[in-house]
Write a structure and sequence with these properties.
There is one protein chain. The protein is mostly beta strands. It has a 6-stranded antiparallel beta barrel. Strands 22-23-24-27-26-25 form a 6-stranded antiparallel β-barrel. A hairpin with a 6-residue loop joins β7 and β8. Helices cover about 5% and strands about 25% of the residues.
Length: about 625
């Protein structure tokens, strides 16, 4: 297969992959691995058939790959940069002539190279799937294939430099050029001149090294870093932490932050895509910051091989009042606070302003945009991007998705409940990002009841494929809104989005047709298909009724992935509405067969009558 054929196949996949299977989870193209076997593991160079070097790790579809992959092709390929999503530069991987048996069958029993940890200096060994090899995850102070190389820590810049790296600094009022040699810093004084402009922050002074043209900063007391932007003595954050410039670089789960200028970040809030990055505290570092006005500092991380984010393990400078009170007074205040009493100094909210803020359909925005460029195989979503997603599990090992529409109610597909599972056998997880994994951001509920529309029949489950699931209250209430759990908006009865409008689907679907496990939450864009097109004889004919919506003939941002019962969310003025419910389709990836969704707007009166909610005024 030549490159032109590959690109044609790539386009065909984008065009055809947006259809769904009835009941079965929606799947993405298959990802396999290819890498030459290495006698001692580690990161050997892999070349393409054109003699260019593969760049590992590289980002594709929001996931991070450490080896060549295959996508609907028997010939493995790799990215020529660390970010295929952004640069689209690739090549076919060349076989390793020194290791003729380059393909390693997944079922072959081979020794585990991590059984005896080959990584030095506290490095951890990670087995590379489908490959008789490994990679070392090194501590920050070491590098190399086996973490055998000691880095140099520069106290002026508060960062490590690898062996062979050079940098300039001002140390004890001397301008120096330094190099890391075998873990030791070697410096010499150099000539300098004044800088044409001053990049140094917080009133730092600048000098330019004559030989290299590099600008170096001399920082005032209490400031450090390459450009005097760090405040190393800061141990907490004020307000929401927008001005936090401390050195915490781990999250609440213990994960390490990615550098804000990392090549692995694309369309996220990072140095390469955000204006006024220095003003928001971003730069060539991996410290926690709050550039988007979130509730506290956070950072990007790698989680299960995909780009993610978390809040950071840094305390607030302002402690709750009762923590500074004597024990007896503290108890009184806690009881008072439970009755919703406020302090005299507390500011009263402006009811006119708060009432204008939508209470549904708003999501976390840790990416610059939703509709990114086409990415083959779907895209891993970020936590909080789809806070209305519900994961529905039963003891029969059935799994479907659903959508939170109010504090106690979830909408899903009726065919997910056609076996009539007992209430005690069902659990609903909200705030879930990884399949069947709970954590600080998740909440698990039992089910009080589920209700079908009167016209639904198990003998024709594609008709009226919608069900209301009522959550069982905990301590007198159901869902408490958090940044990771909040309802989507329901559409008005007459709300319509035009044909070809780009909407979003999300779910935990399989990554390939033969997969037995689910993925982290994925997202994809699909375009709405006209009713007349979907009812053509060669598409679905009269199987598509007025209670259904079709979407997915033409790719809009990503290939389709998801689960039955999940949402087709369409956004208007930055607010998401539940326009459809993933229902059925003819196979997966078949030509001219879009996905079919239950049209939620046609059931608004029924939904409101069940949950006893007054309908919106048109």
């Amino acid at each position: 297969m030549d490159q032109q054929t590959f690109l044609m196949a790539y386009a065909v996949v984008l065009f055809l992959s947006c259809v769904f299977t009835a009941r079965a989870r929606i799947q993405s193209p298959m990802f396999d691995t290819f890498i030459s076997k290495e006698p001692h593991g580690g990161s050997r160079k892999v070349l393409t058939t054109m003699g260019k070097e593969c760049k590992f790790p590289f980002r594709q579809g929001g996931r991070i790959h450490h080896h060549c992959i295959t996508v609907l092709s028997s010939k493995p390929w790799c990215s020529l940069t660390h970010n295929f999503d952004r640069d689209r530069k690739w090549g076919f991987c060349a076989p390793d002539k020194t290791q003729p048996n380059v393909f390693v069958h997944a079922s072959r029993r081979i020794p585990n190279p991590c059984q005896v940890n080959p990584c030095q200096n506290g490095g951890s060994c990670m087995l590379i799937p489908h490959r008789h090899s490994f990679e070392c995850s090194c501590p920050e102070s070491f590098s190399g294939r086996l973490c055998e190389q000691k880095k140099c820590y520069e106290t002026v810049h508060l960062r490590y430099y690898d062996t062979g790296e050079s940098w300039g600094r001002i140390h004890l009022r001397n301008v120096e050029q330094c190099t890391c040699v075998a873990g030791e810093i070697k410096c010499e004084r150099v000539r300098y001149t004044t800088c044409r402009s001053n990049p140094c922050q917080n009133e730092g002074t600048c000098r330019m090294i004559t030989a290299t043209g590099k600008e170096v900063c001399n920082c005032r007391r209490a400031y450090s870093g390459l450009y005097c932007s760090f405040e190393p003595e800061t141990e907490c954050y004020n307000s929401k932490g927008r001005a936090y410039r401390g050195l915490v670089n781990t999250t609440v789960s213990g994960a390490h932050c990615l550098p804000w200028d990392s090549d692995l970040l694309y369309d996220e809030l990072h140095v390469g895509t955000m204006a006024s990055s220095p003003n928001k505290g971003l730069g060539e570092h991996a410290y926690c910051r709050n550039p988007d006005g979130d509730k506290k500092p956070w950072c990007y991380t790698l989680n299960d091989g995909a780009i993610s984010w978390e809040y950071c393990d840094v305390p607030s400078c302002v402690m709750p009042l009762w923590e500074n009170l004597p024990a007896e007074k503290s108890k009184v205040f806690r009881r008072a606070s439970s009755r919703r009493m406020t302090l005299p100094a507390a500011r009263k909210r402006n009811p006119s302003k708060s009432s204008k803020k939508p209470v549904c359909g708003k999501k976390h925005k840790k990416r610059l945009s939703i509709a990114r460029g086409r990415i083959l195989g779907g895209t891993s979503s970020l936590p909080g991007t789809h806070p209305w997603m519900a994961a529905i599990y039963t003891e029969q090992e059935d799994f479907c998705a659903g959508t939170l529409i109010s504090s106690c109610w979830v909408l899903s597909a009726a065919h997910c409940f056609f076996r009539n599972p007992l209430m005690s056998q069902i659990r609903v997880v909200l705030g879930q990002h990884h399949f069947n994994a709970t954590g600080l951001n998740t909440r698990t509920f039992g089910v009080e009841r589920y209700i079908f529309p009167r016209k639904f029949s198990v003998f024709n489950p594609t008709l009226h494929d919608i069900v209301l699931v009522k959550l069982k209250k905990q301590n007198g209430r159901c869902v408490r809104r958090t940044p990771f759990i909040r309802p989507i908006c329901l559409p008005d009865k007459n709300m319509t989005f035009p044909d070809e409008y780009c909407c979003t689907i999300s779910g935990w679907g399989h990554k390939n047709e033969k997969a037995e496990s689910y993925s982290s939450l994925q997202e994809a864009g699909v375009r709405l298909v006209s009713h007349s097109t979907c009812r053509k004889p060669e598409v679905y004919g009269n199987h598509v009724t007025a209670d259904m919506i079709c979407a997915g003939l033409n790719g809009c941002s990503d290939a389709c992935q998801g689960d039955s019962g999940g949402p087709l969310a369409c956004a208007k003025d930055d607010v998401s509405f539940l326009y459809g419910i993933i229902s059925w389709g003819d196979g997966c990836g078949r030509s001219g067969k879009p996905g079919v969704y239950t049209r939620v707007g046609n059931y608004i009166d029924w939904i409101n009558s069940v949950i006893k909610r007054k309908p919106k005024a048109s």
